[in-house]
């Protein structure tokens, strides 16, 4: 039997698969839309969570920052009342007269040395102070899982580049070569060491940038004055020089940034150049500058409020020392934190209208503004103060060794609770210099030429009044809790280096100023985000650090 195929029935449904295809296409479109919505909403959710975390970090850091203001204020109050470490028997190497400035203990010095002689028992800042040891504030952000690490650097431990602007050409040249030596030494012995030629180039760029006379190629900034007059914009940060192409060339050759702390390929910690150089010390208020100018160029500012050791301005009459040497090039600040740098003060009294950088001359025998704190200065800064031909570097090795000796008398004292580091381990109390006079007890001090000694002590002090507070907030996303106190130091540091953790670092620079009414903290740079985590500079870094 033959069956005939019904072609008419087939022709009646020529697109019977189209509905299925359309259904599949609609399904694919829906999947794509849902997938896109899921990605977008997931991204928005992560961004929102990060924003919440960053807000929690900022709030935690703000809380810790206010606490550190109080720590600095209390430290100054304790020092002023004799309860600080200036009253501790760490000065037993001395025997200098409290009333003789540098004249008594350093008998070979000329009268000018007394201008910076820190009075025995006066304010002293050292690594024994509470602020000087890195700490942690786990409890502040515990509810949000935020850990805040605290590191404070006193700007007085650094060398002030404004010294290159003094009117005294000889002193300005000495200051320039000090800066060169610091840049040459600050990463010595690492694979990112800056050679002497590049160090000199960087120092010249800093000086020319301060003078605003450089013609070096640089990137155009949004802050540039379209009329080309930028003399009213002082240098607030050394990092400003990265705008110059020459700095970019040096960093490219080194394959490393100059203004970041980081670990090298050999796992060696190197520090930012801003940990050794500063522009923030030798501060004055407008009122103090006006009073000094009214008294004449010979008026000393060695007793400037907030820095009675003669670091805050020019020379003060101390011991056998003469006054003079005003700090006309010092940074000035109004009581509300407005800054100015050198030059004549505007009649309006507005600090922002003061002239550009113009460091005042320093008479022979007067103390220099921005003296370096011998108790806290990194070895690089100390060794760069004097040329090797004038002062044997072994002298500084003895100074550094002394301030790392254990103070057995203080350790045996039961008067205070033991100081703990950021990991809860007891700190070893080290010796410190309660007066510059005590340098006379360092070995080979008598072998130093009197003129070299005189020049050296003018650049040294034992107190600090400008501080940069570094706060690093971390939110643990690794699943491990570093705030329970059950982890070892190595485990905590390893967890904190994980790239999965949220972290944020800020820097706040403040001026601790002592007045008749008490101690006040004046923010100079209230809040600056950093793209690196700073490390403490140690005299003798551990190999397994």
TrEMBL record:
The keyword Transmembrane applies. Residues 297-328 have a biased composition (Gly residues). Keywords: Membrane, Transmembrane, Transmembrane helix. Residues 329-338 have a biased composition (Low complexity). Residues 117-139, 288-347 are annotated as: Disordered. The chain crosses the membrane at residues 20-39. This is General secretion pathway protein K. It comes from Engelhardtia mirabilis.
